Fold this protein.
Amino acid sequence: MSDMRLVVAGAAGRMGRALIQIIQETPGAVLAGAIARPGSAAVGQDAGLLAGCGETGVAITSDALGAIVGADGLLDFTTPQTTVALATLAAQARIVHVIGTTGLRQDNFARLEAAARHAVVVQSGNMSFGVNLLAALVEKAARALGPDFDVEIVEMHHRAKVDAPSGTALLLGAAAARGRAIDLAGNSVRSRDGHTGARPEGAIGFASLRGGSVVGDHRVIFAGAGERLELAHVAEDRSIFARGAVKAALWGQGRDPGLYTMADVLGLAG
């Protein structure tokens, strides 16, 4: 089988540059295109030179459709609005669309589900292998410990992160909710201020910290009477997310259309 031709959206950003580097290092993958927003100073530059991994011959473009034509997969860590637009193009082209964009709303997911009827879509709030294994452990712990143990999720990211709680924190919250067989949206506490009253029974709490250059720290606390269990993951380099995304793209090649997660990619689903 020939190398999988991958396009990177958001190529001028930190994650975009990390994705380009990992594609260059990964057997079976080749960089076929790189997309940046219209007006970006990166447009016209060689994607590899911008990413610091040597000349690739692939110029960064703002023409998403032109970049996708002839490709096999699209790696997308952008914004919800951009991701939804790219999902339509990827579905029309019948290529694998790997989505690591955070801050997606319910209406965004409806658009992704529609796109997944025509193409393979792999979406996750976090693409790292470790975080997705952590999510599986959180689900099992929540099921085993039951409602006698309160669940709190604490996350910290760099000062420039614009959404909270993080996509990873929500992924972990969803895992805890599945373990408890409850709905996360109706049982989550996102903030506390002032006289809040007692903690609601069965609630899943979130706390978001921002500062410095933290790549991503996540801790899930199960607090019971007289004891506490903590499960944690520390991200030290963005390359872990890029490696997971490229693995997801290679995994998705040749599969039936559908909306998948990293749990599917890693064999943790079900």
Notes: The chain has a mean pLDDT of 95.
